[in-house]
Amino acid sequence: MGGWETRLAVGIFILMLSLTASHANEVNHCTAARTSTCSQCIQIGTECAYCPDEIFEYERCDLKQNLEAHKCLQMVSVKSTMEMKENVKIDILQKRSQVAPQLMYMSFLPGEEKEVEMEVFEPTRGPLDLYILMDFSNSMSDDLDNLKRMGEKLAELVNKISDDYTIGFGKFVDKVTEPQTDMRPSKLAQPWANSDPPFSFRNVITLTSNSTYFRQRLQNERISGNLDAPEGGFDAILQAAVCQTQIGWRPDSTHLLVFSTESAFHYEADGANVLAGILDRNDEKCHLTEDGKYTHDIRQDYPSIPTLVRLLMQHNIIPIFAITNYSYSYYEKLHEYFPIAELGQLQEDSSNILSILEKAFENIRSKISIRTEDKPKALEAQILSQSGGSSESGNFRITPGQIGKFKVRLKALTKVGEDHVCKSKPTDRAGMLRIKPTTFSSALRINAEVLCQSCLCEKTPEKNSVRCNGHGDFVCGKCQCYDGWLGPFCNCSAGASTDSAMCIGPDMKQPCDGKGDCMCGTCVCYNPKQFEGPFCQFDKSQCQRFGGFLCNDRGSCSMGRCVCTPSWTGDACECPTSNQTCLDSRGGICNGRGVCKCGRCECQHTGLPLSPTCESNFQAQLGMCEDKRSCVQCKAWNTGERKGRKCDECHFIPIMVDELEDNDASVIEKCSFRDEDDDCTYEYRVNYPLNNTAKEHRVLVKKKKDCPPAGFLWLIPLIMFLMLLLGLLLLCCWKYCACCKNACLALLPCCGRGRTVGFKEDHYLLRQSLLTSDHLDTPMVRNGPPKSTDIVRWKVADNVHRGPNHPQNQVQPNPKETIQFPVSLRLNRQYSDTLSHPEARDADVLRQEVEDNLNNVFMQIPGVQRVQKTRFRTQRNSGKRQNNTIVDTVLSAPRASYPDIVKLTDKQVHAGNFHDLKVVPGYYTVASDREAAGAVEFQEGVESVDVRVPLFIKDEDDEKKELLVQAIDVPVGIAKINKDHVNITVIKEHARSIFTFLQPSYTFSRQDGVANIPISREIIEDGRTQVAYCTRDLTAKDKKDYISVDGDMSYGPGETQKSVPVKLLELGEGDGLLEDKQVKQFVMDLSNPRQSAKLGRYPRTTITIADKPEPSVVMFKKTTQTYNTMDPVYSIPVIRTRNQEGPTTVHWRTNKASRFDLSAPLKFGPGETEKNVVIDPRAYLSPIVPETFQLELFDPSTNAIIGERKTTLVNVVDARGDKSQDIQKMEYVSQAATSPGGRLYSPNNIKAVPAGPRNIRLNWTPSGNANGYKVKYWIYGDPEADAQVMDVKTTHAELTNLYPYCDYEMRVCGYNGLGDGNYSDMIQCQTLEDTPGEPGRLAFNVISPTVTQVSWAEPAETNGVITAYEVIYTPINEDSKPIGATKKVMIDNPKKRMMVIENLQLSQTYCYKVRARNKVGWGPYRDATINLATQPTRPMSIPIIPDIPIVDAEAGDDYESYLMYSNEVLRSPTSSQRPSMTDLSDDQLLNGKWEQNFLFPGSSSSLSRNVSSSSTTHSHSTPRPAVTNHSSTTTYISGKGGSTSQKYNINMDGGVLKEEVTLRKHSDYRHYTDNDGVRDSIVMGNLSGGFLENQGVSSFSQSTTTSYSMSSRARTQSEDINDALLNLDRVLQETRFNPGVPETPSRLVFSALGPTALKVSWQEPHCETDVKGYCVLYQQINGGEMKRVEVNNPAQNSVVVQDLLPNQSYIFKVKAQSLEGWGPEREGVITIESAVDPKSPRSPMPGSPFTLSTPSAPGPLIFTALSPDTLQLSWEKPRKPNGDILGYVVTCEQLHGGGDLRSFQVNGNVATSLTVSDLRENIPYKFKVQAQTTQGFGPEREGIITIESQDGGSMSQHSSHSVTKREVFNLPTEITSHTMFTEPFVSQDGMMMMSSRQITESGGTITRQVEMVQRGVMSSSTVTNKVERKYYEA
Predict the structure, then answer these.
(1) How far apart are CA 1083 and CA 945, in angstroms?
(2) What is the pLDDT of residues 683-736, one digit of tens each?
(3) Quick count: other Cβ atoms within 10 Å of Cβ 1178?
(4) Euclidean distance between CA atoms 551 and 540, whole angstroms
(5) pLDDT in tens, 1338-1397
(6) Alpha-carbon distances, residue 1623 vs 1479, 1618, 1630, 1874, 1922 (angstroms)
(7) Cα separation, 1597 vs 1587, whole angstroms
């Protein structure tokens, strides 16, 4: 063995030795990082060090203590520091806010965490500045009068809070301009009687300490007024904040701003300023005159909400909102955006403003919000209380006048974004951060940095070192080899062939365990991200799991073991290293009675009832005296009920003592009883055992009883007589007290005077995503002597936060509607574990007994049904009854019967029985869907019980809802109710996961034995989540047809689908005799999604049990087969799917074969899935010639059907070609080189693994005598005929230049002199993900010069699953150089590809960049540059921006504090079917197609829309002669995967004008498949001039109705075809007008002036001549009279329309007129949605969220074809039902006329499906579905469906869905066009698609119809939306 081989062996031995050593010890994070350099090692984190010794046999990068143990001589490590720079102690005598310490320095290693204590002091009566800002509109006149009267009391209140205070006053109304203010001179002088002129804001009283001056000055103020309901209070707040000197704010005082109003608010870009031309953004500067008047109200817009939040925080001002009930909901949402803010509800006259201020003062003074400012990105900061608890939003409670102590926890991140922290910018790793309370001026400053040092030894490498054999550099004690060299001493060439035996580990049969290649005796793993180790033997996904999560999600998998994060340990990282979870109530570990293992206490005496921390479980130990009483009697004195043999059942031995010690700490209970046998009293104690391992308590019994003296026995009769007399007296008192309802008993000392019961807490705040059940156990406590029983009745009301005028409260539910009433009772029997198993015999017997007795009692209520869903449980914290059985059942009855059910239940529970069923009095619960009632029992000695409160969680709940739980009375007992109510708030959150069934129905064969029902999960934000499921009977019955199941399904990170198995039962003998033909069905429901999840499209699925097994499907494996004339046989494979257990037969025959006409049966045995049709061409006399013939399958057996590949084409080609010498060579080939059949066998053991995003590596076992191999590979879904072939000489191959994240199919064959051998079976493999491409083009919707909406499209090449986007925007100069800070925004929801950026610099050019991220990393940027000031703005009258992020450009790096969503700020109409926006012109047609992502941003599922454009006529003043032209259009599509071209030719007076649309592929080998992520480009040729103008067209009319499907998935061929047709639309619509005709009016704006009045405004259109006037047309969108308003004044650009119907949609059209004629119309649709009385003086504000009382439209329609004439229609419930759904009305009619209109009534809220029969094939039908409530019918949901014929074949298992597009163009010419789309293709959704297009000649009318037929279950929802907004593309 050579020298290098020896050194290599030694190196491998050392490597194995170190590996063994590392596994012998605990795996640590230093070795698991697998670093290659010294610097990388010391940058890992804490305790990691590097050993640069030249001779070192262990891991060089390891824990410091390990290197020291291994005798490392030169260790390199880094240590962090923490230093106190300034720490002045707090002086509580100073009346100012203080913080200690003041300055520190900290350095961190990556991942290191440090804590520092921080003290905060706020004086009890510190300085206070109070500024009152009041609405002075006319509706606040009574409020002003009250404030004047309360001026003195207000001063007294402030004086009580602070010794050093100032008070000031300001007033506001609104901007003095239209439409906010009535601009008539009389109204400007005095808008109301005895009022001041209107104004925006005035500072009336500067902050002053002179309360007398404040009261006197306030008396002179008068009210003012304005026009619209919302006020301009935001202007006033901003000026009060930024005008520090004018207002008089003091620097060291607490700043409070009281904002009082009864109206809503205007905000930036809400559209109110458009008509007045106020478009400039608020400059955030002070503009007050000397007398306090605001001067810029008509010069700039209102400020935005993020601006107010930022400025108030910057100036340490705390807002207090005092709002009346009318607008309370607006400010309830608004105040949550402020770190500290208070909200109070004013009475109508503000008489309670003092109490609101006093309560707000207390709350503000008692809590403090501590924030971190200027924090570097590499650091995390957390503020904790002194006990270590955190607070949401950083709010903590402190006591004024006392020092509050907190902990500041700082942690250095290991990554910033996707990169290691040491690769980030220095400014991101270090900086001076400030930690301060939001109201303080002082702060704790920490100079922090993350250490990223490098090793000095790396700076002096030894180049071409001899130690490295001259093939590498010697750096820090190890060799760094050059490319092509391997080994510890760089002594092995990568191209050298070595013995693979060195790569075979113990118990391995192949090198590198088959997971890598052996190079130089070292294994190089195929996928290093998955496999590792010296022999690639470790799989990184196969470490131990805990709770289903790899390494408990608290560590990483390395070398087959879990490497835990520093605070976790264990084989699966399941154990925390701290003992925090083992701390008992006194702060000790496991109460000294156990040990803490893996974060849990293991108590030493497990036989005793102890708590999890080994403390006394008092609930379990209650009643110990009574339990041991009889045993003490029999053991000590042989008396009592157990005397005799029964005493042997007592397992303890009492200890007899002379005296019992009273001060013994081990005593659990002291007991004293009277012995019935001798009338003596005995005493004993129950103590803890002395030995912790003992299983029983120690019982100490006093030897001597206390007996009455024997000499006084004569007194016994006398005493008995006196006791009898006393009993009679007490009985009389009891009767008297009963008449007074037990009130007098409370006066008796023995009855516990002053006993009270009440709820323990005042309020509970719950997050719906964190709920684990549908109820909350709310504790109720009892105070006072617990000497007897008290029973408390309670009730619950849902949605108490909704006022009486709330639309949901105005809709009365149907009292006859049948709903479910959950009922709970406590049975008079003990609970056992068998009752928890529904299938157990005991549970079944008890369930039957309970249901029979309950049905017997409840049947007396009219309309009630039998109880169901009966279950058993126990109730914790229920006193001495917690071991009793609780029964939960569901009673269905009319809604109106709820009071009767409660009354009857209360009566039966009080009696203690339901018929023959014994129940325990004092406990029951009855609930409906909106209220509940019940009772709980306090037994003797019990001080606390739980009330099980249902939470009524529903999809239609508000974002924040409140429940009120009230204690009603105490029917049994003497206790009084103290704290009689508790509020429960439930907060919704956005879903992170969506659960749904894949289909609305499934069919399973009874013979299958089990139905596996899949539950799909759509991941929005990855993580753990859970959903509950349960089955319910329909026609199939539990335990007869199937076994019902219910439970919870848990999903881990990345898991998207799991199945629920349901056992199906065989038919019994009686079932077969009955011949029951009814279809057996049951349903499975999803419910209770948890961890921020919600239910999706199909929360319920119907399972049909088929008694007969499904037939087998037999078909050819491929559609074409190719053989040559030299092949000895033709083997055509036939496959069988489904039901493969039994035998199946099918016949085959040949068609159009020239040499033979064959037919034969093909038989499949049980379990066989593939057979071959074998044809021997040499068996026939005629010569074998090239030909093509067809094989056909027919006549299957009764248990089989023929699938879609019924036929296959067999191509026989000439194997010789033109080279006859090949034949001569073949004649002399040795026969020994061939296989017995003449061809090589196919290779075996083919393995394909991805080697990267564009590479796949294959290995196989060699075939005998093969000269080489051919590898055929193609994209999954493409035909095999399009495959590429690679020729290799070895038994492995690597495919390159593949597409990332793409599925490929491969076959391998060997070849020799006889030709190619047999190909192997198909192998599939998917390439790895790669970084995504750049996002689609950016588009900008310019709202104002400083506010823009940025949109972008998904990357054309996602190369994986997009997980996030990053938006960067930077101010640049003319040379595109940055001139300001770069702002970054991370959007972690990939479906939201839109955001709004505010506070941009005016007239500044910005560079915007967007990039996408998947699991691999970030892709390249798509950038665009735009100056908003150069673009026309499009402010919105009624904001309709959907759920998109809003970012403040001036918020600093910590943008998360200001990130909000527009649906929280912009109050948009939610029910309007056609909201209005600004215009959408041809610029919206990007590259000749609709930019769909911009029109409907954020769409995640398929959505169908119906876009209707109005008829528009353009008349030219000079008519041109008509020209009759004949032209033709031909479109060719070559089929799936081919290129598509479209040409449009028009002959014009000897010239030909061409329009060409080309669909061009990215690659010749990319095709449209199910999983194809390709984006095909559409290149449109230039069209010079409008062809209609060149033809002399005098008029042009278009009427279009389009129904199309769109989604956010990857583009398919059908979508590109639609885009090509839209390109043609653009050509047909391109026209030219006369110069004198006005263009379309722009900026059509609607302003709601009331529920029946609307102001319509527009801007003057461009026209080369003067505009003479306008015409406004409007009518209801659903029909009606068209009304016309003429505007003859060209300067007037608005009209007010009165007498509109509220909650109705109107279409408005505006056009301009000149001398040349009328111009085109501008069209808009608007709905004034209102639930307010039209006569109310408070008219609705523009943009306010008024709600319709009728339901919204039902969800998307789903069609499922059941037969050629029958389909099933299903839909989702309306998103906003606005009441209880009574039913649905479904109408059906033929789309093109003919036939009768059919109508169906679907009653009830549950049914959302309908089966429709008697339909005709190939006829399109239009369906409409409306929901009905007590208030009427809601809008319709439309869908179009065509059931197509199957060409004589069997009905397809999928439904058909037709989407039809029909367009009519009226032209004065005759044009004929013919279009063909050949060969159907498969869309990306797996649907078979076919498009046909036809243009027919019809007297100058072009009718174009596009029909797309989709095979499969698809939704067809029709949403009408008129889009008129212009988007600007950079």
Answers:
(1) 38
(2) 998 887 777 666 677 889 998 888 876 555 667 788 888 888 888 888 877 766
(3) 9
(4) 11
(5) 888 777 778 888 888 888 888 888 989 999 999 998 888 888 888 888 888 887 788 888
(6) 20, 9, 11, 17, 20
(7) 15
First CA to last CA distance, the chain: 69
Structure tokens at 164: 């050093």
Other Cβ atoms within 10 Å of 1700 Cβ, number: 19
For the chain, give the longest Cα–Cα distance: 146
DSSP 236: H
pLDDT score at 395: 65
Quote the radius of gyration of the chain (alpha carbons, Å): 42
Neighbours of 1093 (CB within 10 A): 24
Give, in order, the Cα–Cα distances in Å from 1686 to each of 1244, 1668, 1670.
85, 11, 6
Q: What is the DSSP letter of 502?
A: G
Which helix (H) or strand (E) segment is 721 a member of? helix 715-739
Query: 3-state DSSP helix/strand/coil percent for the chain, to nearest 5?
Result: 15, 35, 45
In a 3-state reduction of DSSP, which class is residue 57? coil
Alpha carbons 979 and 757: distance in angstroms, whole number: 7
Q: What is the DSSP string of 1712-1729?
A: EEETTEE-PPEEEEEE--
More confident: 1595 or 725: 725
Residue with tokens 């029709």: 1918
**Integer Cα distance of 361 and 379 in angstroms:** 35
What letter represents residue 1363's amino acid? Answer: T
Residue type, 859: M
Answer yes or no: are the C-beta atoms of 269 and 301 closer than 8 Å.
Answer: yes
How many CB atoms within 10 Å of residue 1511?
A: 10
Q: Tell me the C-alpha distance between 672 and 990, whole Å.
A: 60
d(CA 1860, CA 1842): 10
Q: Which helix (H) or strand (E) element contains residue 245?
A: helix 244-247
Alpha helices by DSSP H, listed for 367-504, are 426-429
Q: Which residue has the tokens 């130690």?
A: 467
Q: How many CA atoms lie within 13 A of 409 on its CB side?
A: 14
Distance, CA of 670 to CA of 687 (rounded, Å): 9
Closest CA to 785 of 765, 757, 809: 757
**How many other C-beta atoms lie within 10 A of the C-beta of residue 1487?**
14
| Structural tokens at position 1242 | 């196919």
pTM reported for the whole predicted model: 0.38
- H, E, C per residue of 679-714: CCEEEEEEECCCCCCCCCCEEEEECCCECCCHHHCC
- Cα 249 from Cα 646, distance rounded (Å): 85
Distance from C-alpha of 336 to C-alpha of 331, rounded to nearest angstrom: 9
Give the C-alpha separation, 1693 to 1712, whole Å.
10
Amino acid, single-letter form, for residue 246: Q
**Residues 652, 657, 659: CA angle, nearest 5 degrees:** 135
Tens-place pLDDT, residues 737-747: 554 444 444 44
Q: How far apart (Å, rounded) are the C-alpha atoms in residues 240 and 1282?
A: 73
Q: Spell out a b/e string for 336-347, using b for 16 or more CB atoms within 10 Å of the CB, else e.
A: ebbbbbbbbebe
Residues 446 and 440: their CA atoms lie apart, in Å, by 17
How is residue 1914 annotated by DSSP? -
Beta strand segments in 1262-1372, E: 1268-1275, 1284-1288, 1292-1295, 1303-1312, 1315-1316, 1323-1326, 1339-1344, 1347-1351, 1364-1371
Token output for 1094? 């919600």
Give DSSP secondary structure letters for 1574-1602: ---EEEE----S-HHHHTT----EEEEEE
Taken in order 272, 278, 283, 289, the sign of the CA dihedral is negative
SS3 122: coil
CA distances from residue 1344 to 1370, 1451, 1483, 1924, 1930 in whole angstroms, order as listed: 18, 18, 19, 17, 16
Give the span between the Cα atoms of 1789 and 1832, in whole angstroms.
Answer: 23
